[in-house]
Design a protein that fits this description.
The longest helix has 15 residues. Helix 1 runs parallel beside helix 9 and helix 3 packs across helix 5. It contains 9 helices and 13 strands. The chain folds into 2 domains: about 150 residues, Rossmann fold; about 90 residues, Hypothetical Protein, Haloacid Dehalogenase-like Hydrolase, Chain: A, domain 2 (2-Layer Sandwich), CATH 3.30.1240. Strand 12, helix 8 and strand 13 form a beta-alpha-beta unit. With about 270 residues, the protein is an alpha/beta fold. The strands form 3 sheets. Strands 2-1-11-12-13 form a 5-stranded parallel beta sheet, with helices on both faces. A 5-stranded antiparallel beta sheet has the order 7-6-8-10-9.
């Protein structure tokens, strides 16, 4: 029996696990790399829950290797990290576009539309004018998520508050993943739904999650034990069980693994 048997640790990528501004070959600090390897060697299940496409996360396999299913696109796509096989998917459809239209009609500031299609692993970017012309075609092209990106953090907050009001009674979540970027994803496919599914699939008895921004809140609330990293948004800290003393670049995940070890040794 390993010390971490039955523990499933799911960490956000940007701002939670990685070193901000670091070169690609040093994107995960040594403290986090060593701690994750130790955690996995002793029976723990580690994975990343990111808003990025899976191939991006898997390109860092020289630094970390998830040993259970990888959660990508903020929960909309879960894949086997070894084979790349999709295990679970959730997509938007034409029902998201009336919501986007309502938001744009009431939001007077800069707004760019991003579409993350199922058919290709690259986001498509549209200005307001381009979005209006392409909207009908986009509605027929399933996407894992769509975004509105504005120009300043202040406008990002205005956009978020307006979107939360408009999507409240819909099937969609609207949450910022960085200060000026607002993501729309089906509630059934958010990070919270994804980590609950993975806990069931793995049979884990302790689900631990790590995050720093608004799109991480559903998985923090879904966990048995959750951590906001030092420097996380205030709303995120409020949703977490605990707050680390270290930032992502200082080894926040290593700190969390040490805490899990203390709990398991009791």
């Amino acid at each position: 029996m390993g010390l971490f048997d039955g523990v499933l640790l799911c960490s956000d990528w940007d701002g939670s696990l990685t070193v901000p501004g670091a070169p690609k070959e040093r994107i995960v600090c040594d403290e986090n790399r060593k701690a994750i390897a130790y955690f996995e060697e002793n029976g723990g299940l580690f994975t990343v829950a990111s808003g990025r496409y899976p191939d991006y996360i898997l390109s860092f396999s020289d630094q970390i290797v998830p040993n259970t299913a990888l959660i990508s696109l903020n929960g909309a796509k879960i894949v086997d990290p070894k084979s790349g096989t999709s295990l679970r998917e959730s997509t938007t459809d034409e029902s998201v576009y009336p919501l986007i239209d309502q938001i744009l009609a009431r939001f007077p500031h800069e707004a760019t539309f991003l579409h993350y299609p199922v058919k290709t692993p690259h986001a498509e970017r549209y200005t307001r004018k381009e979005y209006a012309a392409a909207k009908n075609a986009l509605a027929k092209s399933p996407a894992y998520k769509v975004l509105l990106v504005t120009d300043t953090p202040e406008h990002g907050l205005l956009l978020r508050d307006l979107a939360r009001e408009i999507v409240a009674s819909s099937d969609y979540d609207a949450a910022r993943s960085w200060p000026i970027g607002l993501e729309f994803i089906r509630r059934e496919g958010n990070k919270g739904s994804a980590v609950r599914w993975l806990k069931r699939e793995t049979g884990a008895d302790l689900l631990v999650t790590v995050g720093d921004f608004e799109n991480d809140i559903p998985m923090l609330k879904a966990a048995d034990l959750s951590f906001a990293v030092a420097g996380a948004e205030g709303e995120v800290k409020g949703a977490a069980s605990r707050v680390t003393t270290r930032t992502s670049g200082e080894g926040a995940v290593a700190e969390i693994i040490a805490i899990i070890e203390e709990i398991r040794r009791k």
